[in-house]
Structure formats: structure tokens, C-alpha cells
Specification:
Blueprint: H1 2-6, H2 35-45, E1 51-57, H3 63-74, E2 78-80, H4 81-89, H5 94-111, H6 123-134, H7 137-142, E3 143-147, H8 153-160, E4 161-165, E5 191-195, E6 203-208, H9 211-219, H10 225-242, H11 250-257, E7 263-266, H12 280-309, H13 336-386, H14 388-401, H15 406-434
Parallel strand pairs: 1-3, 1-6, 2-3, 6-7
Antiparallel strand pairs: 4-5
Length: 445
């Protein structure tokens, strides 16, 4: 093995060769411990920013329908308040226990005609439920669509505002300059309410639905009225009181506190009860109204998207949101050719978006490969300079000798080569020190 190592050909790998600097590993503590750093770096280098929407309205209004449209447009998690409460109440967690206790109190208060409440889950508890859902990874990095919350000013304050110390120069808060013993009390810094960064919506839609439409939606769920009607009446009463014309409701909150102008959506009222003769006429009127409501919500979704994209660039590796889909079926059936033309245009637009998406993903793949090549270059250079030549010569010697134990032979070869390399390094340093010129060439093999 030693004789083979002495006969190996190659360059001298002494101290004259500068070794590459140590690598900086981003996940030295493991990927799980650094997932937020990795996610933040991924979004920062690809200019990905979360986009957030909030759709508010009276209980039973079309907030869930409009929210679903926005979630589909941007491929975002859709969070409906009622669904979040139902999910968290079944969870074995501190928040789940808190929600179960509050719902039990409300149920007992509604069952007692002489009771004085409570009739609503406290705003602080609801905000805690929503913030925990928003803090999950999909919502944190991609954004979210929140439907049905907040319902009142207290909800909005708990969710979107937080208390922080006032800036320098603000007057401190002192309830009583001296305590009972006459000692001076330490001044408390003044606290102010500021927007909760990282959770604020980029766009808000305010849905105004007639009470008859809200009741129709809830009745369509086929649940016993005694389960939801008392709560609905209390919530509707609060909504109408806080968001009446001229009142400082949610629209004023978003404008003054968060500097957002909501997109106002007015759902058309249902037809009068005596407008149709029953039977097929009733079904036709209901179908026509459903198409009209879908069209109104579709237009509102386009308006909300345009409003947000006029302020910030929405880039989440998804194709751009589509334009208004219009009426899915015309009320007047004689316009069939127009429907066919619209369908053809929609198919062409869908094909174009699919191609753009594939091209974008292919470009991302090429960029990723290029970055990987660039970051792995120092490691590859190190291996090619210090490891590969020696391993290659050892494998050549194994093939030429063909020993019974090739692995053991290769191990002895590498050990002998390491000893020979150290001897060459010592001889190289000694000859360099003895040379009058101060430096000589490296000795040959």
C-alpha cells in the first residue's frame, strides 16, 4: 500500500495552497428551529409579501361568499369567524377551554328570560382566537382572508390595535402624585393605541345586507331556529346600532385608525313575498336574484383587488387574479351566442394564465439552480483541490492491483499518502528556510 502511495502522481498539497474559508450554515441548530429565518429569507429574496383582506358585515350577510371569492383569487387561507370558533371550542387547549366556558355562559343567559347577559363572546377572546389562526405559517407568510369579524368597534380595537408606550415628550400618567403616607408615587408612562403591525389588512370590504337576506341564509342551513335565532337577533341589534347612518361604526374605524377606505358592497334586497304566483315563478325569481348577488360580489371582488394592487405589488407565485366573470348564466336565454363567445374568451384567458404560470415556475426553477450552483462553488472547489485527486489515484491503484480486500487496501493507501504528504510539507518548509533566495519550488514526486 505504501509503495503504491509513493508512486502516485499529483500536485503537492502543502501549506502553500490557501484553504477556503469556513462556510456559514443557516440552520446550524436544525431546520425546525430556524424555520422562520428560512421562510423570511425565501420571501425577502423573491419579494413575496403577504396580502391580507378583511370582509365585515351584519351576521348572516354574504361576507363568507365574498371572502371565498377573494381567497380563490389569491390562493389564500379563508378564515370564517364561526368556523374558527367551532374549531377552537373542540380543541384541547387553554383558548378552547376559555371559548367553551364563554359559550356556556351565553347559552345560560339566553335560556333565562330575566337574565342580563352576557350575550356575546368577549372581544378579547374572539381577537385571541383570530390572532392565533393568523399566526399559523400559511397565513403568516401568504396572508389571509378574514370573514365575519370584527362585528363591532370593540372587536376591531382588540384585533387591529395594541397599546404601546407613548413617544418621548408625552405627559406621563399620574393618578395620584402622593400615596396615603405622603410619599411621591413614581410616574407611569403614558400608553397609546397603535396599529398592530404584521396583522393589518391591506383591503377591507363592508357588506350591507338586508335583514331578510341574512335570515334567508341562516334558514338555508336547515338548523333549528331555537339554536341560532336568539343569538342572531342580539347580534343584529348591536350591528344596526353601531353601524347606523351617522354613527362612528366600522367604516369610520378603518378610515381613521388604519387609514383604509372600505369597499362598500350593497346586496340587493330580496323580491317581495307577493311578487310571484308560486311554483316555477318563485324558483325563477330566486335563481335570478342569486345570479344578481353573485354578480354584485364579483364586481366588489374586482374593485377590492384593484384597490389593493394600486398600492402594493401582490406577488405570491400565483397567476394574476382574473377580471369580472360576469353573470354565470344570463337571465334572458335568448342571448346564447353571447354566452358562447364569453365562454371561448374565458377558456383562452385560462389557457394564457396557465402558460404564464408554467413559464414563471420554470424561471423560478432556473433561478434556484443558478443560486445553488453559486453557493456550492466553494465546497466543490475544496473537494476538487484536496479530496478528489487523492481518492482518484487510490481507486486507480486499487483497480491496477485488484486486492482481495479493496476497501482495506484503499484505507491503507490513503493513510500512507497522508504520511507522505506530511513528509513533503516538512521537506518543503525546510528547503524554503535554507534557500538563500528565501523560496524554492516544491520538490517533485
Amino acid at each position: 500500500g505504501e509503495a503504491g502511495a509513493e508512486g502516485a502522481e499529483g500536485a503537492d498539497y502543502g501549506d502553500a495552497v490557501e484553504k477556503p474559508k469556513a462556510f456559514r450554515w443557516w440552520c446550524e441548530a436544525g431546520l425546525a428551529a430556524n424555520i422562520h429565518a428560512v421562510g423570511g429569507e425565501f420571501c425577502r429574496w423573491r419579494r413575496l409579501q403577504p396580502v391580507r383582506f378583511c370582509v365585515v358585515g351584519a351576521p348572516g350577510s354574504g361576507t363568507a361568499e365574498l371572502g371565498a371569492m377573494m381567497a380563490e383569487r389569491y390562493n389564500l387561507p379563508h378564515m370564517v369567524l364561526d368556523d374558527l370558533i367551532e374549531e377552537i371550542r373542540n380543541a384541547d387547549s387553554e383558548t378552547g377551554k376559555l371559548v367553551r366556558d364563554k359559550l356556556a355562559e351565553i347559552e345560560a343567559a339566553l335560556a333565562n328570560p330575566k337574565g342580563n347577559g352576557p350575550y356575546f363572546v368577549p372581544s378579547a377572546v374572539l381577537a385571541k382566537v383570530v390572532l392565533e389562526a393568523i399566526a399559523t405559517k400559511p397565513s403568516l407568510y401568504r396572508g389571509y382572508v378574514l370573514s365575519g369579524f370584527p362585528q363591532c368597534l370593540e372587536d376591531a380595537t382588540e384585533l387591529f390595535l395594541e397599546e404601546r408606550p407613548a413617544p418621548p415628550g408625552a405627559e406621563p400618567v399620574v393618578e395620584d402624585p402622593k400615596d396615603k403616607k405622603g410619599k411621591k408615587v413614581e410616574e407611569v408612562p403614558k400608553m397609546i393605541q397603535v396599529p398592530r403591525l404584521g396583522f393589518l389588512p391591506d383591503g377591507v370590504a363592508l357588506v350591507h345586507s338586508p335583514e331578510e337576506s341574512c335570515l334567508a341564509r341562516l334558514r338555508a342551513k336547515d338548523l333549528p331556529e331555537e339554536q341560532w335565532l336568539p343569538t342572531f337577533k342580539k347580534k343584529m341589534e348591536r350591528w344596526q346600532k353601531e353601524n347606523a347612518e351617522g354613527a362612528a361604526g366600522l367604516a369610520d374605524f378603518f378610515q381613521t385608525k388604519i387609514n383604509l377606505e372600505p369597499v362598500v358592497v350593497n346586496e340587493p334586497p330580496p323580491p317581495p313575498a307577493d311578487a310571484a304566483d308560486g311554483g316555477a315563478a318563485d324558483e325563477g325569481a330566486a335563481e335570478a336574484r342569486a345570479l344578481t348577488v353573485d354578480y354584485v360580489f364579483d364586481i366588489a371582488a374586482c374593485e377590492l383587488s384593484a384597490k389593493v394592487e394600486a398600492v402594493k405589488e401582490v406577488n405570491n407565485l400565483m397567476p394574476p387574479p382574473p377580471g369580472p366573470k360576469g353573470m354565470q348564466a344570463e337571465v334572458h336565454r335568448e342571448e346564447v351566442p353571447a354566452e358562447d363567445e364569453a365562454k371561448r374568451k374565458r377558456d383562452e384567458e385560462e389557457l394564457r394564465r396557465k402558460r404564464e404560470r408554467e413559464e414563471k415556475l420554470e424561471q423560478i426553477k432556473r433561478d434556484e439552480l443558478s443560486k445553488l450552483e453559486k453557493h456550492s462553488e466553494p465546497l466543490r472547489q475544496y473537494l476538487m483541490s484536496f479530496v478528489v485527486p487523492t481518492i482518484t489515484s487510490g481507486l486507480v491503484e486499487v483497480c491496477r492491483t485488484q486486492p482481495e480486500d479493496p476497501v482495506g487496501y484503499l484505507a491503507e493507501y490513503l493513510a500512507a499518502y497522508a504520511q507522505l504528504s506530511r513528509k513533503r510539507s516538512k521537506a518543503f518548509r525546510g528547503s524554503s528556510a535554507a534557500s538563500p533566495g528565501g523560496s524554492v519550488g516544491a520538490p517533485g514526486v
